[in-house]
Amino acid sequence: MKSQEQPAKALRTERLAAVFAGLLGAFLGLSLLKFGNPPITEKWVTAPEGLYEFLFGYPWPIAWAYGALVLVAALGAVVARWKSTAPGWLVALPLIWLVWQGIAATQSADPGLSGATLKHFGACALCFYLGYFSLGRVGRLWPFWVGLLGALLMVLAVGWEQHFGGLKQSRQYFFLYVYPHMNEVSPDYLTRITSERIFGTLFYPNTLAGVLLLLLPVVLTVLWQLRAFLTPAARCLLIGLAGIGSLACLYWSGSKGGWLLMLLLGLLALLRVRFSRRLKTALVTGILLAGLAGFFWKYAAFFQKGATSVTARFDYWRAAVQTVNAKPLFGTGPGTFAIAYQKVKRPESEMARLTHNDYLQQASDSGIAGMAAYTLFIVGALAWGFPRACAGRSAGPEHWLRFAVWLGALGWSLQSLYEFGLYIPALAWPAFTFLGWLLGKREPDAPTPKLSAAVPNRA
Question: Tell me: the pLDDT tens digits for 32-42?
């Protein structure tokens, strides 16, 4: 009797795990469409009025996301496998980082901003543990990818629509019918709506570039692994459409750093493929030269004008370092960079709410300990979660999928050196989930064979 009950129980658990994976993927996909703003700008977000705004307006209040995540986490706890294979200190780091953020929030210059940021950081840590303990036990991840990648296709569709007239029409409608009746408008939204750079459903163009860096490697890999459903020609067609659509949106976003990082990720992917070294060297050199030539051709005018956005970032970073020197233990509180920056910024510099460097902002907002915990977690997760077994033709589909996830997480972490992806739910929540899944799925190191086992027995 027990022998019959065990397979039935395992089947129910497997189905429940698939439901969890689908819900988590749908939640993260929804974050791409509706939760692309930093929590510190929540005062400008209002609940949608009517069905049209609910479906096609963005963003939604972030409190809705927290409620949905709690429900997903409840199911994740049911299907979780609480066995840990990664180093204990590495698994504990997100929790240690979150606790320190809470301690720093008690010394905040603005408790309201810190409270909003702390909730978001709590969601980040929860996504990591869901990826590590729950998603890592799911055998087939198709339910997870359907929601997440389906939402990405919608983001791309919105980006194409914006480029081919939608952004201009939205700008005209806003200034004719909406702007005259508003008491207060987010300065960031005014900047977006008056620019020709597309941003999809995200906070601003560089955030769209961050989403593409994080998800495009996974998109292409998942499409290539549809062997059971599509012919090679159909898969190549889908990969071409997804790749061209994504790269076009990256180009139209005008993200200079995104262009260079995507070039780097492409070269790293090419280096993992096993073929003639001479041909590989020629391809890498050719792609690198073509990519750099296109970059400098596209942005020649930007550098001739003095690269103003780069100069502005140096001013933000200088202010963050000054804040750390003044308050090295707790900083000014999570999410409060704007308060510290306003006191030390140069008269000619534009105001900024975020440091445009997640690692420096951690130091500015929560002191050196906060920065150390966060940076050590990111570096440790990427190093320990690196899929060493995926090189060569003999590597299986799961290994290549893990490499694609790792590549996307690497792109997100590198963009954080000059952007604020940690403070965007649509970016941070999938990235933390990916890091958790990578640690949970890492292959155990092969044990060193004993001498007695290595020497054949001639008896």
Answer: 999 999 999 88
Backbone angles phi, psi at 274, to 5 degrees: -90, 110
* Residue tagged 């139209």 (tokens): 252
230 to 226, 244, 404: CA distances (angstroms): 6, 20, 20
Nearest to 406 by CA among 391, 427, 385: 385
Interacting residues of 361 by C-beta distance below 8 A, sequence separation 6+: 320, 337, 354, 355, 420, 422, 423
Phi-psi bin for 78: left (phi > 0), alpha (psi -120 to 50), beta?
Answer: alpha
Q: Nearest-CA neighbor of 85 among 449, 436, 447, 448?
A: 436
DSSP count for the chain of H helices, then E strands: 19, 0
Non-local CB neighbours of 430 within 8 Å, separated by 6+ positions: 28, 31, 32, 127, 148, 214, 215
- Average pLDDT score, the chain: 84
Tell me what the mean pLDDT of segment 98-106 comes to. Answer: 96
Instruction: Give the residue with greater pLDDT, 353 vs 172.
Output: 353
Note the pLDDT of residue 279: 67
User: What is the 8-class DSSP label of residue 446?
Assistant: P
